[in-house]
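Weekly modeling sync, notes
Attendees: S.R. (lead), two postdocs, one rotation student

Agenda item 3: backlog of single-chain predictions. S.R. asked that every request posted to the team notebook include the full sequence so nobody has to chase files. The rotation student volunteered to paste the first one in as an example of the format we agreed on. Action items at the bottom.

Example entry:
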Amino acid sequence: MKYTPILVALCSTFAFTSCGEKATNESSTPANAASSITVESIIASTAPADAIAIAKAQDSVQPGDEVTVSGKVMGRKDPFVDGRAMLVLGDPNEITSCDMIEGDGCPTPWDVCCDDPETIKQSVATIQVVDAEGKLLKQGIKGVGGIKELSQLTVTGVVAEGSNGDNLIINASSIYVQP
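Predicted structure, as returned to the notebook:
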């Protein structure tokens, strides 16, 4: 019982000090201003000029280069990453989706299963949408702006760090979905 007044005093002190307004040096800008970047915000209404084929880009661009490529959503059985702003774009001049092969009833024509794996590797690019800190957006890209398997896209962006002749990664700043 002799500790009761002390406990009441301590609890009261904590209660009153925690209710006051805290002085802060933070700006009124949200801590994660990058969250304003969405996949929807980079869907373009007009196609950019001077797009190059993915296979050509594989051989001619370096990390940090700005590039515009055109291609088709294909190159894997699952060209989208669930819950992430990432897809695989293939070069239709080098690889063939099964919908272009007469009589082929493939249920996943975007997987380009009839093409040579080495040719596929040299003819696809990973397209991703990242925030201002370079982190992949935690937002699915499938369905946005009509993007789906076999969609024809023209993508402008910057070649990401870690890209090389065998693995082209583009941080997209604009995606045009061809009608």
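Discussion: group reviewed the output briefly. The chain has one domain: 51-177.
Action items: rotation student to repeat for the remaining queue; S.R. to check formatting next week.
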